[in-house]
Structure formats: structure tokens, C-alpha cells
Amino acid sequence: MTAEMSHAPTRRRSRGASRRLIGALAATAAWSACFAGLAPSAVAEDVQARQWYLDAMQAEEMWKVSTGKGITVAVIDTGVNPDTPSLSGQVLKGLDATEADGDENDDYKGHGTTMAELIAGTGNGGGLKGLAPDAKIIPYRIANTDFQHSNKHVNARDSADAIRAAADSDARIINMSFGSDFSMDAEREAAEYALSKGKLFFAAAGNDGDGANAVQYPAAYEEVVAVSSADSKGTVAKTSQHGGFVDVASPGADVPVWCDNTFQSYCDGNGTSAATAIASASAALVWSAHPDWTASQVLRVLFDTAARDWPDDETSAYLGHGLIRPSMNLLKHKGDPGDPDVSPLTGKSTSASGSGSTASAAPSGSASPSASASASSQPSQGKSGDATVVAGSSESEDSGNNLGLIACGVVVVVVLGGGALYYLRRRRSTV
Question: Phi/psi at 213 (nearest 5 deg)?
Fold first, then answer.
């Protein structure tokens, strides 16, 4: 099951409140004003100097309040190499769900290691500095298409098994920069189980926005936070997949990534994989600062403080609730955590309170991929009850050009973006 950032990684759900989807073509938001008055980063001219979003998100200031300490993030990906300088001492024991040769520390692509570094890298040895550098990583290895083709015996239920294992682990956050066109019963039930266990699950929205823009899973499941990608100017490229399933946007363009699994050099990457990792790290910072909060409260604050200039009960088809800004909570104490036992994703009570969930600890015995959405198993791009605003609609005036967003001078406009993709993508025809 997979989304990959190429060298350069849909849904909706009923939210409990009627929502209008704002969007047309592609959206952009400018972070440029965030750099005004900031001193140059005090890092050497290495890969960290290319991590533009650390300054844009006020990472140095946030780290005075929270570094992600005490939070563990499950990274479900191509494996994680624990021996890069930036990940030394950061990676805990995980699981190889592929059941192929090697284990969860054998990263066959370099992708999973990149995601782990973006989340919790220490920056040692000139490596990537994670946004939550004191968080820990639990790796879960699953297969992409190439890995499946090169290995005869791969567990067909690897993604579902990995999600369930992560749900049963000490990880509070699950990061899955992977995507597939197919919804699988076992995987969907695993996502439901993770929610019932109090986990916060982020997944990449996908990078085929200028193509078929097919719904991607697990991002499209109701229990999962779908993340789109923004650049230093806030541009959400036309390749970033869009629709009613998108929950939030996060930095993902021009982000350094490991070039391959030799771990010799970093390359420039673009896409929703990195955006997802940075969103997960944002959640880790907030949760570390508020360890008694539930997943629902952490996510509600991230939604509440996201940069936007449309009403809180409306979402953009490209930006979701807006651009993620953990600094608004950590530095300005903004955001209402709300009810600890009601998910902002589903609008339903979570099992953390002992009610409202029917998720089973036992996995389903079947998985049914389908290329077309159905009311029962595949969320549509605009659930019943959502009023979708499209280009030219009389209701879309507030989604037009030059929407000035408060804090860091974020501006949303309608443009077309582009760029290479870095998104692990795997298609399954059967399971």
C-alpha cells in the first residue's frame, strides 16, 4: 500500500458539521512574510540550510517550549535506517510487515529514513534536523510495487498489519507517507482500530492532482488526516491531490531527501510525503507540550490554528483547514482543544472514553480493492451534507485571489503549481 515522493508521495468524510469546500484549480499560500526579521539560520552550509520551513515555522522558538520529548511516532514506510548520524539513538524496535528478507531497519528505498529524519532527526553529522528532534521513531516496513515485484513472498496484508501493530505500540502518532488507489477492508478496519486506540494517524494525500486525482488510501479513510503539500511561498501544486478528503497543508516542496538507499547524499524532493512527516512532527510538538491531551484535542488545535481566512466550519479542497502552524499554540497559546473524547475527523465519540467505537482488535479476513467509490466502503470527495464550492460558483467569492491570512502574512491565491513528486505509490489489484 503506498505514496512516494519522487525525486522529488481522497475522501470525505462526514465531520459532524456542515462544511463548504473552497477551491478551484490550485491554491497557493505565501509564507514569505514569515522570514521578515528572522536572523539567518546558524547552521553550516549543509542540508539543514536547505530546510527552509524550519525558519518559516519558527522552529528555534518552538524548541524552547517543546522538542517532541516523550512522543513516539510510528513510521510505516520502506524501512528506517537507524545508523544515519541524524537518527543515531532515535529509532526503537519496530516490525517488518513485508515478511520478506531483511527487517524494518533495511530501508530498500531511502524514503522511510527520510521521513524519520524529517520527524525526529537530531541533525548530527550535518543530517536533516527533525521538526520534533526529541521524539522517537518506531519503524514498520511495508512494500511498494517495485519491492513486491523483486520479492516473491511479500505479505499481502502488510499495510493493515503494520497499522494494527502501530496501534498496539507505545507510539501516539502514526505517519504513513504511502498511498494506493484501492480501499481495502483490512486496512480500513486497521485505521478504525488505530483511532479507537487513541492514535493520531497522518497520511499523504497523493501527487496525481493534475492527472486522475484518484482517491488515495489510507489518506481517504475517515479516521486518517490527509495532508497536502505547500512550498515556501505557500503554493499548493496542481499535482497535490485535492478534494473533500484533504484536512491540512504542510511544507513539502523543496525539502531535502535521501537520494537513495546508499545514504550518501541528499537530493531535492517535492510532494506530500515530506508534508505528512512535517505534519506528524507538528503534532508531536503540540502533544509533548500537552501530554495529557488526547489525539482528538491535539488534532483539533492543529485544525483550529491552521492559517486560513475562511470560516472554521469550512474547508478548502486544496488546503483543508489551512496551513499547519504549531507555533500558534506553542508560542501564542491559541487553539481550543475541546472535547477530549470526540474526534474532529468523524464527529463521533472515540473508544478512549469507552463508547462510540465498534473497531475490532481482530483483523478482517478479507480485503476488497475497488477502483470506484461506493457509499459503504469508499468516502467520496464531497460527502453528503457538504456544500462544495467550485470555480465560478456564486458562493466562492471568499475563495478568490489575494486572501490575506493573519500570522506570518500568509496569502492564498488561485494559481497553478508544479514540481517533481516524491511520493511512494503502490497499486494493488488484489490482496
Answer: 50, 40
